[in-house]
Amino acid sequence: MGMHSTNLQNSFEIKLKDFSLEKTLNCGQTFRFFNIGGYYYYPYGDSVIKLQESVNNDITTLKVEIYGTYLSKDEFSSIFGLNHDIDYINKKIIQITPILKEAIEFSKGIRLIQMPPYETTISFIFSIQSQIPVITSRLNKLAELTNRQIEIDNMKFYLFPKREDILELPIEAVHSLKLGFREKFFLNLIKNYTMEDFENLRDKPYEEKKNFLTSILGVGDKVSECIILFGYGDLTGFPVDTWIKKGLEKIFNVRGSTKKLTELGRKTFGSLSGYAQQYIYYYMRTFKR
């Protein structure tokens, strides 16, 4: 707990095509980012990433500063999915399902972020039957309670807590998060699972991840797919929420349980599932509501 180094650890510029930071951060895959004065501040692990994007003739320039713990340009690129061959992915999805062309055009610029698995698990347990602003405020409150902070530009940003920080919190602090029925899922996770348990899954095949995650109290089909996709960067993950259900019905005229639709998505799109899911989600939530 307490202050971390506030020194600038790294800074660099990246130019790339077909990338939108604004869309990438606002498409429901990550919750704790702050848009202040033309910059985005993104707490990630033991770092805070400060970002500014400018777009000129289809080329996005990202100015990146890393505070707290050092992150290399390569590490940053892999966190933000900048190494995904997006042209190939988009062409391939359109080949499989030409009907998704409009959703892809609309969602152009989204990349899949890979977050730390433990934080992802807590985030999506908090997300059950909740709207994004509520999820975000719960997660921010949790980070403030454990008080690991980095100061940048005269502002304090709270890092996501480690498990041991959360274990030290009095139960009243946990109650103050107003998690409702999710509180028992959160407490069970913190008491019974370590960050290492989640790190150890990193190189395991999809089925093994799925079995481990769904054995955790409160983690069902949707939450486990979110963790697989957003926490492990496994692009065969296909989370199904109400927007995806609406999208699959509207675009493909299919209905079914979360489990059935997850299997259908993964079977249809294979290693492109995560992107297909994200495009349908963003399109339905932003454009087709």
From TrEMBL:
<dbReference type="GO" id="GO:0003684">
    <property type="term" value="F:damaged DNA binding"/>
</dbReference>
<keyword id="KW-0234">DNA repair</keyword>
<dbReference type="InterPro" id="IPR011257">
    <property type="entry name" value="DNA_glycosylase"/>
</dbReference>
<dbReference type="InterPro" id="IPR003265">
    <property type="entry name" value="HhH-GPD_domain"/>
</dbReference>
<protein>
    <recommendedName>
        <fullName>DNA-(apurinic or apyrimidinic site) lyase</fullName>
        <ecNumber>4.2.99.18</ecNumber>
    </recommendedName>
</protein>
<keyword id="KW-0511">Multifunctional enzyme</keyword>
<comment type="similarity">
    <text>Belongs to the type-1 OGG1 family.</text>
</comment>
<keyword id="KW-0227">DNA damage</keyword>
<dbReference type="Pfam" id="PF07934">
    <property type="entry name" value="OGG_N"/>
</dbReference>
<feature type="domain" description="HhH-GPD">
    <location>
        <begin position="128"/>
        <end position="285"/>
    </location>
</feature>
<keyword id="KW-0378">Hydrolase</keyword>
<keyword id="KW-0326">Glycosidase</keyword>
<dbReference type="InterPro" id="IPR052054">
    <property type="entry name" value="Oxidative_DNA_repair_enzyme"/>
</dbReference>
<dbReference type="GO" id="GO:0006284">
    <property type="term" value="P:base-excision repair"/>
</dbReference>
<dbReference type="InterPro" id="IPR012904">
    <property type="entry name" value="OGG_N"/>
</dbReference>
<keyword id="KW-0456">Lyase</keyword>
<dbReference type="GO" id="GO:0140078">
    <property type="term" value="F:class I DNA-(apurinic or apyrimidinic site) endonuclease activity"/>
</dbReference>
<dbReference type="InterPro" id="IPR023170">
    <property type="entry name" value="HhH_base_excis_C"/>
</dbReference>
<dbReference type="GO" id="GO:0008534">
    <property type="term" value="F:oxidized purine nucleobase lesion DNA N-glycosylase activity"/>
</dbReference>
<dbReference type="GO" id="GO:0006289">
    <property type="term" value="P:nucleotide-excision repair"/>
</dbReference>
